[in-house]
Amino acid sequence: MSMNYANIKYYDIANGPGVRTSVFVSGCRHHCPGCFNAVAWDFAYGQPFDKTVRNEIFASCQPDYIAGLSLLGGEPFEPENQRELLPFVRNFKALYPAKTVWCYSGYTWEQLTGKEPSPARCEVTDELLALLDVLVDGRFVQAEHDISLRFRGSRNQRLLDVPKSLAAGQPVWWEDEKVRRFDPLSHRCAMPAPPKGGALFVLTGRCKKLPLRGSWLRTS
Fold first, then answer.
1. Alpha carbon of 85 to those of 26, 78, 112, 126, 127: distances in Å?
2. Other CB atoms closer than 10 Å to residue 76's CB: what's the count?
3. Among 217, 210, 215, residue whose Cα is nearest residue 195
4. Among 189, 199, 154, which residue's Cα sits nearest to residue 10?
5. Radius of gyration of the chain (CA)
6. Residue-level pLDDT at 1
């Protein structure tokens, strides 16, 4: 059975640094209370993650202003999903070696690396994990929810630098001082409103119309 996906967000700025393409896979066994995407718990939800969809994602990441790919869910590290994602991520890294891959998982680093028993471990886990740049690990915990956190929903979750963590043999936090938390009160695009049918993405500098979907991006 092939993997389904629940949603694809192009020009996403919420799930990793820069402008990204984010893929929300279907299927999750965690069932965290307060989950923002509970509809994607069902493995049968959504549409097939077929070759046409994969190629559309690859094409969306071609522009230089796209920083990379983010994998969410659902749960990307359910064994069924890992087996589908491994060749996809492998091809992505071959096409775009300079772009980053982020992955959000309810499983912890210790569970995925086999230091703690976990049903997530399968024959492809080690290779898929090694292809990632950053892993955001841990279940969403409603009591730990904090809207001020960057790129994560609850305080128990960690942003882990995967290459450094693998090299060190223990979790190493991801750090990038060049990426700062967005303050909507002090960083506004110099436009009264986004164009009709478009979305307003605010980073730093001036506004520029993107070549796709009439969106706007501050680029300098």
1. 12, 10, 15, 13, 11
2. 28
3. 215
4. 199
5. 17
6. 59
Q: The tokens of 154 are what?
A: 């609850």
Contact 197, 214 (CB under 8 A): yes
Amino acid at 179: V
Q: Quick one: tokens of 56?
A: 């559309």
The pLDDT tens digits for 65-86 are 999 999 999 999 999 999 999 9
Q: Cα(94)–Cα(173) distance, rounded to whole angstroms? A: 25
Average pLDDT, stretch 152-173? Answer: 95
Distances (CA, A) of 15 to 12, 122, 124, 136: 7, 26, 24, 10
**Under 8 Å between Cβ of 119 and 80:** no
The gap between the terminal CA atoms of the chain, to the nearest Å, is 45
CA distance 69 to 46: 19
Minimal CA–CA distance to 206: which of 193, 184, 187?
187
Could you read off the pLDDT of 21-77 as tens digits, one per residue? 999 999 999 898 888 888 989 999 999 999 999 999 999 999 999 999 999 999 999
Dist. CA 127–CA 149, nearest whole Å: 29
126 has pLDDT over 90: yes
Q: Are 110 and 140 in contact (CB under 8 A)?
A: no
Instruction: State the angle between helix axes of 51-60 and 79-95 in degrees (0 to 180), rounded to the nearest 10.
Output: 40
Euclidean distance between CA atoms 21 and 116, whole angstroms:
31
